[in-house]
């Protein structure tokens, strides 16, 4: 894995960041001691980052491309990938969608490196039933094109409102798992939302066995949604990060209710227990951070980092109407507890 510049974190983290337990009991937005400057000021929701041959590739929810991408060599300066410099047409990692997918609704891509190449997991709208479901596509190159001729999604929990936010995980023993959320908050279903785990085949293309429920939206701060699962193993301990609340920024809110939490798990298939100090990272109005969420954890230069998005905002903490920007923070571990902290 390539090194990371010694100045990167000085620029990203000038002082202490928001730590566990930052939300007040009254629900008042917590106060941040420093800002989280975005590293990429473009509409780039649900970011996922993969290191490849000395640079970092980021994938995001569709915005003119089914799977848009950006690249960086230092994690500070990012460039949107384009196929045609003259026209500025965005590079699309999956330009042709599988037969089951309705055009224009492709979200939350994550990529798994395997011996055979790369596997892309994505959420898309099912053309036949209108639900959001999870698909899978493959490519020899992490830039794509990722392709799939599947007639049906990899997983779609139709009785539970559909399925979104796939996240692959390779355990220390090599076994692959997929984490996902049932879309129970779909207005036609009004069911609880849960985070599930299920084994994957060695090539990452098939689910094995039955899904296991790990986390449910049963805490006040989570409101009606838990989603965007990310499993991490460190020192034999398992941590399931997730996002919760309304991902949007409603007119009635000073800042978005969206936030990041985590649960501690006994293994890749749980059982899991929510951290009592949740949310792990929440919105703050001074300085403005609105709706941090849909996190992913990756490594660079031997460090654990967390990428996430938040809503673009004015200096007065009002919506900037430019979408969701990408942020990167350093993730550290103290006595078995994850923390977002300076270098």
UniProtKB/TrEMBL annotation:
Record keywords, A-Z: Glycosidase, Hydrolase
Active site: 46 (proton acceptor), 227 (proton donor)
An individual GO BP term: carbohydrate metabolic process
Residues the UniProt record annotates as site (Important for catalytic activity, responsible for pKa modulation of the active site Glu and correct orientation of both the proton donor and substrate): 165
Domain of life: Bacteria
Keyword Transport: no
Pfam family, one: Glyco_hydro_43
Gene Ontology MF: a single term: hydrolase activity, hydrolyzing O-glycosyl compounds
Protein family membership: Belongs to the glycosyl hydrolase 43 family.
Protein name as annotated: Glycoside hydrolase
